Structure formats: C-alpha cells, structure tokens
Amino acid sequence: MSMSAVEANFDGLVGPTHNYSGLSFGNVASAKNQATPSNPKQAALQGLAKMKALSDMGLVQGILAPQERPDIATLRRLGFNGSDQSVLAEAARQAPKVLAACCSASSMWTANAATVSPSADTMDGKVHFTPANLINKFHRSIEHEVTGRILTATFADDNYFVHHPALPSVEHFGDEGAANHTRFCHDYAQPGVEFFVFGRHAFDGRFPKPTTYPARHTFEACEAVTRLHQLDSDKVVIAQQNPEVIDQGVFHNDVIAVGNRNVLFCHEQAFLDQQAVYDELKLKLSGDMRIIEVPTKSVSIEDAVTSYLFNSQLVTMPDGKNVLILPEECRNNPRVWAYLEQLLSDKQGIDDIKVFDLKQSMANGGGPACLRLRVVLTQPELAAVNPSTLMSDAVYGRLCQWVEAHYRDRLVEADLADPSLLVESRTALDELSQILGLGSVYPFQQ
Ligand SMILES: N=C(N)NCCC[C@H](NC(=O)CCC(=O)O)C(=O)O
C-alpha cells in the first residue's frame, strides 16, 4: 500500500493576556523583558501572519486555540475564593506573581504542547499525542489538561488518533514536548527515526547536568513517551543536551537545533556527545542523512540565543525545496546574517530563507519554531482533522477580525487584576471555540 503524507504545522494562537512577567528562569528573553508592556493584539496578528504565509506557501497550516486566562480555577485551588472578581482582587493583593503566572499566554508556544508520533512510526498505526506536563515552570504546568482537550477536539477521530494523558507531574518526568523532539525520515509516509533530547537524568547520578539554569526535560520522560507511543527502539535516538549550553540560555533543544526529513541543522555545541549522536542518527535512519553543523566561530552560543537562528522552522515546499523560516532578529545580527548568506550560497541542503516579525513572542523567548506543533498526517488522517482548525483565506480573515474586536494593544502587570480583562478574555474564547469548532474545552464553559 502506498500512501502519501504531509507535515502539518499547528501554531498556537496568542491569547488575549499575552504579557511579560519574567516567569521563565533560564530563558534569557523572559527575564530581560519582565515588566515591559506587551501588545497582545500585535502578538496575535504577528502569529496569524506567519500562519497565513505558510499556508500561502502551499503548506498545511493548523491553529490551536489558546487557554483560558486568567486561570480562575487554578487560583481557587490555591485558596482564593468568593466571586471571580474577588478571586482576582485577592490574588493581586496577596500574591501578584502567582496571579501573573495564572495569566500567562504561554500556551501559544505549541512546540511545548505535546509530543506527536506519526502513524508510520507507531505499532498500532495511529497518530499518538502526549501533552507535555511542563512541570519545571508553574505557569506552564497548568496547561496540559486543557491542551489535551484542545488536541482531542482538533484530532477527534479515534480510528486515527490516540491521546495519552501527560506524564506524572513531578520533576523526575519533566517533559517539554516537541521542543525537544524531532523526526527524521526520507519520506513523511515511511517509518522515521524519532529523536528525543533531554537535559538531565532523574534517576542516574552518573551524568553531568547544568549548574546555573534548570534542565527541564528528563531522560526518563523521553523513555516513557517512546513506550506510550509504541515506537520501535531501533528507530529511536535519545540524546543529552550539552549542559554547558543550557547554562547559557538554551532552555530547549529547539533553541540550538532543528531538523526535518533527512536534514539536521544544529550548532556544534548542541549535544553532550555530538559525534555519537550523529553516528546513531545516521545508522538508524540509514541512507542519506545531512548534518549542517554551525561552528562557534561563525555563530556563538550567545548569538544563537539572542537571534534564535536555530528556532527556525525548516519546512519542505511542495516542490521539494527546503526553506528556513526565521525571526527578524537573525537579520539584525550581522554574524548570523553573514552565516545565512554563506549557507545559501554553499547549497548544503537549505534552499531559501524567509524572515518574519515575531517580536512580541520573541521577547518572551518564543521564535518561529516555538509557535508550532508539527503533526505528520497521511491523507485520510488529514481528512479526519477538525476542518475548522485549518488555515484558509476565510479563517484568516475571520480570526484577524476576531483579534481586532477583542484584544487590547497594551498590557502591564497591574492590568492582569482588571476584572474586565477576565470578561473580555472569556467572551473572546467563547466565540473562538465556535469559530474553531471545538465545543466546550474551557473550564468557564463547563
Ligand atoms: N523553545 C520553545 N519551544 N518554546 C519557548 C517557550 C517560551 C516560554 N516563555 C515563557 O513562558 C515566558 C513567560 C513570561 O515570562 O511572561 C518558556 O520559557 O517556556
């Protein structure tokens, strides 16, 4: 049986409470931009413009809804009570940082929504999803339940899709999802090699770990997901990230490496035992595997972290050309830009680049690749996806209108306690769940 398959990108729509609260220790941009006023409207429109552009390039583009924020249900679990207004007011008075965490729009970075294994790789021939528990950061650890509901409403048909609950929410199984997962293949429809990257071992003290910043993702989480997704261990590579670069702000592997099909584009300091990682990938993929390694002398770790060169999307156009989708910060860094010009003229396997303005997301450490969850789908699987979640001219127009109608263009921390922001957000999300045909996925709708 021959079957064709495509890689779809499901981007997170930025929610109405997008703000800069400095919540992510180890993420340099998040710390640096704490207390800067944000522009949720611009953030959402920048994200939508990228989605529309990729859809116009002939790629399959999906949309994942944001979460309900402020998260009143979580604030109630933490002991705030009374009316929703008094929950907000008391949280703002007693614990403003907890309130900020319960207002983060961080679910926009859907590279952290889940790990996804295409049906060609799994024993039961279904697409498997495991939402990431994101246990290392409180504001992100409260995402996975609703993420699971949104994924289930998007990929609903259980003939094709399997949804697992998140791993146990303890640091031993810290799981950051697809930000630390890449799938290599020769053809999307054929079995591929799934590449999992972790920051530290939880149960084995023999291995190095970072000393300044946290390693969010564990080896044990990677192994658990490979079991849940029924992957063939001959087609799985699990590698440790270089702890020294985590300590320089590389909080996810997708800040230092990106891969697609048979191409791996990464920095020379990305992995702990770099050559062994390459060897195992080459052995398990078999056939042509292309590794484009960027040396420190061309691009330092600091330049990689500030420009987000590796947080690019590496996409294959319908004509087979490989294109890097980059944030504007790459063009603003002369060393990174010179490297990119060289890369294109060397013809090493990347044929073109496209640059996007994603400043609102970038200021919280989220580049083009953070904003998308990749889902490889066969034609029948694609036909089974909730059609309202797929980008089109009509959906784009409708969503831009929706953002214009409901979003503010300025938000500072003090605004998070504003009871009208809660009303605005719920009104917007209620309408959005209808536009995207999701049913009742939010706590306020239950
Ligand atoms: N690399 C990938 N795939 N994702 C980027 C996630 C950025 C996110 N930032 C934040 O959550 C900052 C929120 C704040 O500080 O307000 C994080 O650190 O988890």
TrEMBL record:
E.C. number(s) listed in UniProt: 3.5.3.23
Entry keyword Hydrolase: yes
Active site residues per record: 176, 252, 370
Family membership: Belongs to the succinylarginine dihydrolase family.
The protein's assembly and partners: Homodimer.
Native organism: Photobacterium gaetbulicola Gung47
Protein name as annotated: N-succinylarginine dihydrolase
Catalytic activity reported: N(2)-succinyl-L-arginine + 2 H2O + 2 H(+) = N(2)-succinyl-L-ornithine + 2 NH4(+) + CO2
Residues that, per the record, bind substrate: 21-30, 112, 139-140, 216, 254, 364
Any one GO molecular-function label of the UniProt entry: N-succinylarginine dihydrolase activity
Metabolic or biological pathway: Amino-acid degradation; L-arginine degradation via AST pathway; L-glutamate and succinate from L-arginine: step 2/5
Keyword Protease: no
Entry superkingdom: Bacteria
NCBIfam families membership: arg_catab_astB, PRK13281.1
